[in-house]
Design a protein that fits this description.
alpha/beta; Rossmann fold; five-stranded parallel beta sheet
Length: about 170
């Protein structure tokens, strides 16, 4: 993976625009609630002849005193992100039967998500929700509040307490 956005992993043939089906976008992060959301998106995509799209946002480098150091840090973060995305791409392929669409961005996660929703073809946004005391998470809180007017696709929120069996049952229809 070498370019910045909307990549198809190496070895995957790009799909024709007419046969892509519904696109289920999942925001990739390091939270536990990602797992059930990703499983749900994969199974829904498989059952609807759709595809999963992943969005991973690299946080901006805050160390800008020496340009070279900032560039090295940025490149290290990008390599780590690409490795993580390849791991998830393999999991998505195994669950959905198709390689995912990959969006790799740098910046504020909420803002980059909104940009993808405004500029890319996405049919459903799938987010995992933390059911603990901390609340559902900052993206859900933002999208259900002040940013709701900027979202023009359905949002499916998957609670982190759902088991694989429950998710499989939900995606039968």
């Amino acid at each position: 993976m070498t370019s910045a956005d909307s990549e198809t992993p190496a070895g995957a043939a790009p799909a024709d625009a007419g046969d892509i089906g519904r696109i289920f976008l999942v925001v990739i992060d390091d939270t536990e609630e990602l797992k059930p959301a990703l499983e749900y998106a994969c199974l829904r995509a498989k059952r609807s002849n759709g595809r999963v799209a992943m969005l991973y946002v690299i946080p901006p480098v805050e160390f800008e005193h020496f340009m070279f150091v900032g560039d090295v840090m940025r490149e290290d973060r990008r390599k780590d992100a690409e490795a993580l995305l390849q791991t998830y791409a393999d999991q998505i392929h195994a669950l959905s039967g198709r390689m995912p669409i990959i969006h790799l961005r740098e910046g504020d996660r909420r803002e980059e998500l909104l940009k993808v929703l405004e500029s890319e073809t996405v049919h459903v946004l799938v987010l995992g929700a933390d059911t603990g005391k901390g609340g559902p998470g900052p993206l859900i809180t933002s999208l259900m509040g002040k940013d709701m007017r900027r979202v023009h696709v359905p949002i499916t929120i998957i609670p982190d307490i759902l088991s694989s069996e429950e998710i499989r049952t939900l995606t039968l229809y």
